[in-house]
Amino acid sequence: MSDVAGLGVSKPASLKVFQPFFVSLTLPYSVIRGEEVSITTTVFNYESKCLTIRMNLQDSLYYKILSNTSRTVCVCSNEAMSVRFNIVPKKLGEIPLTVVAKDVDSSVCDEGVEQMALGVSDAVTRKLLVEPEGVRQEYTYNSFVCLKDNESQFNDTMVISLPKDVVTGSVYAVVSTVGDLMGPTLNVGNLLRLPYGCGEQNMINFAPGIYIMQYLFTVGQLTTSIENKAKNIMTTGYQRELSYKRTDGSYSAFGNSDSEGNMWLTAFVLRSFAQARPFIFVDPDELKQTSDWITKKQRPNGCFPAVGKLFHKAMKGGVSTETTLTAFVAVSLMESGMLPQDKVIQGALDCLRDASSSLKDSYSFALFSYTFALARDQYASDLFRALQGRAIREDGLVHWEKEKEIKPTPRRYWRNLYYRAPAADIEMTAYALMTHVLLGETDATLIGQAMPIVKWLTKQRNALGGFSSTQDTCVSLQALSKYAKEVYSANIDLAVQFGKKNSTFSHTFSVTDVNRLVSQRAQVPSSILPIKELPVKVEGHGCALMQADVSYNIPDVKDEPAFDLKVRLSPSQDVMGPILTTETGELLCLPLDFFVDAKWLREDTSNMAVIDVKLVSGYEVDEDSLDRLMNKPKLGLKRYEMEGQHVILYFDEIDKVSFSFKIYQSTMVKKTKPASVTVYDYYETDLSATKMYTITEDMCGVDPIGVDLP
């Protein structure tokens, strides 16, 4: 800055940084314990002369080295040379691999080659993900308690059970406690172990942030760090959701690639975006366009039509799809700011009144009750009484569930004690809880009566703080946040003890108002598992959520399938010979055709369905072959994603599908373990089927052993 000439900006200058000698490792994304992995190590020489390089793979307890730990090669100027080290991983998790390369004062170069010793060296450390064999399984036990001053303590017993064929070393168990009903929700952005590849599923990265922000702001617990994290996740979710917006203002599961907008999803997005406006920027013009699209679709009788595919099967219940959908749309419009007196809402309520005499299923009763309660309509009381008569009351808990004739009842060869309810049961129970809270504004006893519902809902939570799928998670978190605001107390001082003192496992947590939102955790040693009885004792005053999360692998899934799933592989017919080799010259397998056949076995239809193909270690998918599947409208494939070793394929529903794609070997891994293919209903994940598959040497079409290397 100059007083005479003003602001001056210099011309840009570039600085090129160049490393004339370095080493790199080529690793597969992941391997299975016990597989034989070739670690390709490449050294690059950009010095002016040839160098004699010795490369060493450091010994480690994490793996067994099958080859020599040291290799010496001649690398001339502007050339690269690769060698391989064969290892077998022995430990699970991310294991470190370190290779050191340096020039040495000896020669393996051809006679007459000009070389020199410069004393150069380089080292590189990479981590290799080692997974256990088999298929991952998990379950969660939750217990929620509120102690008052006149209550001395609370006692519970957890059972950490395991199947007999659990894979050795795969078990991981942790106990935790948090002093706030909404505490687990702070894991916003990572509430489900499910893919988020469509417009509805993406909302799991958006809507929960609204409820946690509303709750923490109301009770005065919103910190800057939590606020910033939630806003960042919500902003990203908002921007991503706009990619599923159609030109007419509606939303659909896969945006403009669908033939029309989806009424249910559009209403869900409108509600969520409007509720987020106090926290992040949401374009008001976008909201108006979306709202106009919805209201213009309303029929003269006040009902809203089921535009687009209704992939939320619970709404098909015992009444027409149209009336149940109308209740959902009316709720969304009111929660987005439309007044109950608006003619659009009044028309929708008239539609629902006309249909209410035909209600037959608990889901519709729960949704209708909440709709009329939200509208402050007196008819809510009549619906609420009918809903109460349908409640399931067991062991001090209250919930609602689908009628027995349509309730999924998969048989399992082994089931832990803490089976999570279907998503539709969780969702309708959450609607019932919100109705309790709304009607509790004029009848305070209803808030107290809601505790058994809250306890049942908390028992359905997964290890991440979510529930089963997107919609039940969003509705349940909204319900729990509304309830938590009504019963919040800053006075909390609890001692939560897992296990007995001086036993094989014992851990005590102190929960106070200062750390009420912090999830305190302790790992249970796998050496003492399973545990028939793990006592839990809570003393003091206040509320706390206790949780045990258990995960493990089994060799294969033996549950009764909801799909008929067939998998086979064969050498690709359009490839005449080996086309790939590794950097070290090893011949890789010919590309393989991967055939999948899936058929729904139930009488009704599936919800949105997902096929998850885990690739064998060292293999990758040919994306061009997946793109060709996307160009087959009759197949019904709406989207695909690749996450690590997984290929995830989305379908609106699956009745019967058959398709194939190509995979190829990119990294040499020998003695590969079986991998899995799973098809499941996205909204009822227990409705699934899993098949294991292997790739054998005779499928390759070439000798997979490769050539000898230095």
Task: Describe, in plain words, how this protein is organized in 3D.
With 710 residues, the chain is α+β, with helices and mostly antiparallel strands. It has 14 helices and 28 strands. The strands form six sheets. Strands 10, 11, 12, 15, 16, 17 and 18 form a seven-stranded antiparallel beta sheet that branches. The chain starts with 20 loop residues before the first strand and ends in a 10-residue tail after the last helix.
- Low-pLDDT parts are 405-414, 702-710
Work out the number of β strands: 28
For the residues shown, what is the average pLDDT? 88
How many strands, which pairing sense, and closed or not: the largest β-sheet? 7 strands, antiparallel
SSE blueprint and pairings:
Elements: E1 21-26, E2 30-32, E3 36-45, E4 51-57, E5 63-65, E6 70-75, E7 79-89, E8 93-103, E9 121-131, E10 135-147, E11 153-160, E12 172-178, H1 207-219, H2 224-241, H3 263-276, H4 284-296, H5 321-335, H6 343-356, H7 362-374, H8 379-389, E13 392-394, E14 397-399, H9 423-439, H10 445-449, H11 451-459, H12 470-487, E15 493-498, E16 507-512, E17 520-524, E18 531-554, E19 563-571, E20 592-600, E21 609-614, E22 619-621, H13 623-630, E23 637-643, E24 646-651, E25 656-665, E26 669-670, E27 675-681, E28 684-693, H14 697-700
Parallel strand pairs: 2-9
Antiparallel strand pairs: 1-3, 3-7, 3-26, 4-6, 4-8, 5-7, 8-9, 10-18, 11-18, 12-17, 12-18, 13-14, 15-16, 15-18, 19-20, 20-25, 21-24, 21-27, 22-25, 23-24, 27-28
Helix pairs in contact: 1-2, 1-12, 3-4, 3-5, 5-6, 5-7, 7-8, 7-9, 9-12
Pfam families: A2M (PF00207), A2M_recep (PF07677), TED_complement (PF07678)
Domain Alpha-2-macroglobulin: 1-57
Keywords: Disulfide bond, Glycoprotein, Protease inhibitor, Serine protease inhibitor, Signal
